[in-house]
Specification:
Two copies of one chain form a homodimer.
Chain A lengths: L1 E5 L6 H11 L6 E6 L3 E4 L6 E4 L1 E2 L8 E4 L5 H4 L3 H13 L2 E4 L3 H7 L7 E2 L6 H6 L3 E2 L4 E4 L2 E4 L4 H14 L1 H10 L18 H10 L6
Parallel strand pairs in A: 1-2, 1-6, 2-5, 6-7, 7-11, 8-9
Antiparallel strand pairs in A: 3-4, 10-11
Helix pairs in contact in A: 1-6, 6-7
């Protein structure tokens, strides 16, 4: 089973690496990082580079697609090479998924037309403008399309997907192997839980940084 | 503030990228991925490479050290180049931290002598053999030394550390920016919570894969 993670300069690292960490543990799965050309792809901070090992042309019919996000996705929403690859891959995929603003690319490719979907909480409105029905939910399943909320939600999405692909027992073993028993030091990971001043802080900072 | 993440072939990607995602959002922080030589470093599956942008010699006095793990750490426990760099960096660091079996390297370097510490749940015994007092806890703080449990625990550790470095409000804003409101599909992320058959499955699989 080929699992393709398309990557691009400016992506958010955890959007891609969270699902990679889960899905690479699915028996028989091969995760491949793809880009227009092979070589290093810098994350949005510039402080980390992931290597794209294959080009879009080399893997056009993966069984699973995981699209990460990052602020750059807004700029890629009219990039025909990326959107064309997504449309073609989605035709034959068993699962088409996204993390964070990766869903904006799925929406721009027409893949979310009329479907419920999610994205980073700051971009739910953008998703609506591109034909999807935005839902404030951590993981949204619509047939073979699964979208996840911001950044860290990709881990929850990938465990859900691992259970669909390989069964609940395998997904549970993966979760235990990764010791994914989250204990965040604060209870402020969603805008409905965080104090208003923290929500305002993040809204203001998005001009320069998030999601 | 320089935050150094030493990386090595065979590391577990999320051990490094979870803390990177949090700490790169701390205002004024620069995260640098270091290795013996610069260039691609393959994770344990071989399916992903991170780029080391600097050598150990280029950054000997980082303010923060984050040591990731992976099965390979057992082999590195007598690697004098790695241990020497850790000892030297720890002398002047403000914070010395680890994720998963990264703590085995800290222990081998003598940094955990007599301290409480944690690691992946499968390796707590190994930690004890190297002079630390193992604790089954997600994040263990001992002065400037902070160790985290397996793989995904690095995110919780890094948020704890971000609060120490930059204050709780900033750490909370980072958590919200990453939408870290975890909702794992199963409640089996620790050996005390998982069904016995899942624990046995992971124990058996570690011969070939985890932690």
């Amino acid at each position: 089973m080929n699992i393709a993670i398309p990557v691009f300069d400016g992506l958010t690292a955890l959007d891609a690496v969270g699902p990679y960490e889960v899905l690479s543990r699915v028996p028989g799965a091969t995760v491949r990082f793809l880009a227009a050309t092979t070589g290093p792809v810098r994350t949005e901070t510039g402080m980390l580079a992931l290597l794209a090992d294959a080009t879009f042309d080399e893997l056009t019919e993966p069984e699973v697609v995981v699209v990460p996000g990052g602020r750059v996705t807004r700029r890629l929403m009219d990039d025909e090479q990326t959107l064309g690859w997504l449309r073609r891959a989605h035709e034959s995929s068993q699962w088409t998924t996204s993390v964070c603003t990766g869903s904006l690319l799925l929406a721009a490719a027409g893949i979310l037309d009329g479907l419920q979907a999610t994205t980073h909480w700051l971009e739910l409105d953008t998703l609506a403008r591109y034909g999807a029905h935005p839902v404030s939910q951590r993981v949204v399943e619509q047939g073979k399309v699964i979208t996840a909320a911001g950044v860290s939600a990709g881990i929850d999405m990938a465990l859900t997907l691992a259970a669909r692909i390989a069964g609940e027992q395998t997904a549970q073993a993966i979760q235990l192997g990764m010791e994914y028993d989250p204990q965040p030091p604060f209870d402020c990971g969603s805008p409905t839980k965080a104090p208003k001043e923290i929500v305002d802080l993040v809204r203001a900072a998005t001009l320069s940084r998030s999601p």
